[in-house]
Amino acid sequence: MKINMTTALYLEHYLDSLEHLPIELQRNFTLMRDLDARAQGLMKDIDKLADDYLKNMKKESPEKKKEQLTHIQNLFNKAKEYGDDKVQLAIQTYELVDKHIRRLDSDLARFEAEIQDKALNSSRAQEENNASKKGRKKLKEKEKRKKGAAGTNSEDESKSARKKQKKGGSVASASSAGAVGSGAQVDSTALGHPADVLDMPVDPNEPTYCLCHQVSYGEMIGCDNPDCPIEWFHFACVGLTTKPKGKWYCPKCTQDRKKK
Q1: Is 222 helix (H, G, I), strand (E, B) or coil?
Q2: Would you call 236 exposed, middle or buried from its count of C-beta atoms within 10 A (0-12, 13-18, 19+)?
Q3: CA–CA separation, 232 vs 127, rounded Å?
Q4: φ, ψ dihedrals at 209, nearest 5°
Q5: CA 154 to CA 151: how far, in whole Å?
Q6: CA end-to-end span of the chain, whole Å?
Q7: What's 242's DSSP letter?
Q8: Is 193 annotated as a binding residue?
Q9: Where are the domains of the chain?
Q10: DSSP symbols for 143-203
Q11: Residue 13 known to bind ligand
Q12: How far is 29 from 93, CA to CA, in rounded Å?
């Protein structure tokens, strides 16, 4: 729907610019025909005067012949002016049409660029959303496995502590409590470590991204260079905590752009 509205907007503006073009073209062609008719009339007069001059040149005095030649030359100059005006008018008419053609090419290029930009932004937003969902899902599965393993270890240690308590009295009980406390501390630290994502089982058929060559997880950002060989990066690997405003280029593409 947005594309249709954009198309209608470009088309409406372009048709508005063409509104007066037929009238201007008709006026220019009418003027060119008029100039051509005037030049043709002068050329007929010149031909007649030239014939009369050649027939009577022996009879006429030098002053009369000079006067006739001057008159013929003036007519030639006038015909040349008409021809120059006609050429200039033809050039103006060509430039008038060419201006609208160039505007049409420019509007088409901008329209195509806007469509491609919207499609690219939509695709990137969808990919970022999918990557974010996939990363959160894998992280949740990893945390569930960690919690399940921690629960099993705690249960085993509690059973062991109860057995020791029966055999060794209060000393065994304190030792058991210390062991359980230590186990809980290690497990809590492991759950909070961000590198857990890297320990996740990786599907060999799943593509890898980023400078770390790992699968997609968590928040990721796409490089705005369409020729970027990597395309997607984890926030932590490129030193980001939030998505930056405007266009963003990865370290490699930024360095290449500076070289250019």
Answers
A1: strand
A2: middle
A3: 10
A4: -140, -175
A5: 5
A6: 39
A7: S
A8: no
A9: 5-132, 220-257
A10: HHHHHHHHHHHHHHHHHHHHHHHHHHTHHHHHHHHHHHHHHHHHHHHHHH-GGGGGGS---
A11: no
A12: 8
210: Cβ–Cβ under 8 A, 6 or more apart, which residues?
220, 230, 232, 233, 234, 237, 238
Q: What is the pLDDT of residues 175-232, one digit of tens each?
A: 333 333 333 333 333 333 345 555 555 566 788 889 898 888 888 999 999 999 999 9
Q: Is 100 annotated as a binding residue?
A: no
228 is in an annotated binding site: yes
Q: How far apart are CA 158 and CA 152, in angstroms?
A: 10
Check whether 223 is labelled as a binding-site residue. yes
Give the pair of three-digit tokens for residue 136: 């959160």
As given in the structure block, the two tokens for residue 112 are: 């195509």
The CA angle 106-112-116, to the nearest 5 degrees, is: 145
Q: Helices 62-168 and 2-17, interaxial angle, to 10°?
A: 170
**What are 113's two structure tokens?**
């660029």
Q: What is the pLDDT of residues 8-67, one digit of tens each?
A: 677 777 788 788 888 989 999 999 999 999 999 999 999 999 998 888 888 888 888 889
**Of 248, 224, 225, nearest to 238 (Cα)?**
248
User: Is CATH 3.40.50.1000 correct for 220-257?
Assistant: no
Query: Is 234 within any annotated ligand binding site?
Result: yes
